[in-house]
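Researcher: I need the complex structure. Ligand is L263DTV3. Inputs:
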Amino acid sequence: MDMKSNKSSPVLTDPAPINKSRLGIHSNLLPYPQSGASFSSGKHINIPRKKPGKLDDVRSNGWLDAMKSSSPPRKKLIKDFNFEVAADETDIAYFSWMLKYPSALNSFEQITNFAKTKKIAIFLDYDGTLSPIVVDPDQATMSDEMRSVVRNVAKYFPTAIISGRSRDKVYELVGLTELYYAGSHGMDIMGPINRAVSNNQPNCIKSIDQQGKEVNLFQPAREFIPMIDEVFRTLVENTKEIKGAKVENHKFCASVHYRNVDEKNWHTIAQCVHDILTQYPRLRLTHGRKVLEIRPVIDWNKGRAVEFLLESLGLSKRDDVLPIYIGDDRTDEDAFKVLRERNQGYGILVSCVPKETNAFYSLRDPIEVLQFLSSLVRWKKLGEERRSMNNRRSI
Ligand SMILES: O=P(O)(O)OC[C@H]1O[C@H](O[C@H]2O[C@H](CO)[C@@H](O)[C@H](O)[C@H]2O)[C@H](O)[C@@H](O)[C@@H]1O
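Model: Output:
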């Protein structure tokens, strides 16, 4: 297998041999990884060409189970004075889970103590992190309060949004010029100009952003644009009779939403996606929150995007850098994993239910994300004020 990665194209050019997994099907078609807490290895292999599948395939391969388990509903918590009282066993499970993944708010002092002498870089997912999950993806707006906090975060720390949405769409939703944006799960990055990076990456070109500023544009799956477009159009056509189904074209990946589809029709959605994957062996499936996502089989994900941005920012070879990545989805696990493997920084999982994760800390929901980011800004501002007061005193 010719796997070109990192310094050249991350595209896997040669189909890998069939992986005889536990269920007798290729791992790319499995909704979950087959071991441990790691949801994605980051290295993805091609799938063999097969005849279009039967309905049984999506049932026996666990697709429907995975679809059912994605995006659990928010739990109700009883508020008693300022304490959240466990309402049932699920709450108890959540509180014991928090022993392993402590709240980033409760651990704030510990985080900032460690960060004192470090340069923090912030990476944020969009849906479910900066904006609450809503039924219509087009209505997933960000509150003005959140926008203002993210703007302030970017004043003090290099900040990037890494989203599954297209880069243009997430920029339109966030609307802040002071950030870096990576769309399509990191397959479309607009980052700072860094000649060492662009010289090393054939898919990295010089471009101009919305403000006319020179930037680096990195699109490792560029060659897949026509394929994704074709797949998008086929999926729109094949799902048009399924009430509530919604297909999005993110340029380098396509999403099929089933949140608003009657559960009895989920197998039809799964079958449509399954058929596409059998017709396009260079594409693979990932699961998001009530969404099936089809993306190129390339060695690239949100974790690689974090590494790329750190390098572009000139922060990758420094050991005084503290990257913080906040995200809620399975695709964010790739980024949490990278931070764990680098033994650098913290992944923070946004979840109100216990989940196996590679993150270090947790936050319940976007409200807590806002509180955490605000605290970070306050802490940094205070530190700078103290420093400048001390400097004035010593003159
Ligand atoms: O990486 P992200 O920024 O978290 O994007 C992941 C997906 O987010 C969107 O879908 C999710 O949020 C919607 C709005 O709350 C919700 O309706 C949907 O059920 C969720 O899956 C977006 O529409 C997807 O294309 C992104 O891949």
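Model: Summary of the prediction. Residues 1-9, 12-50, 76-86 have pLDDT under 50 and may be disordered.
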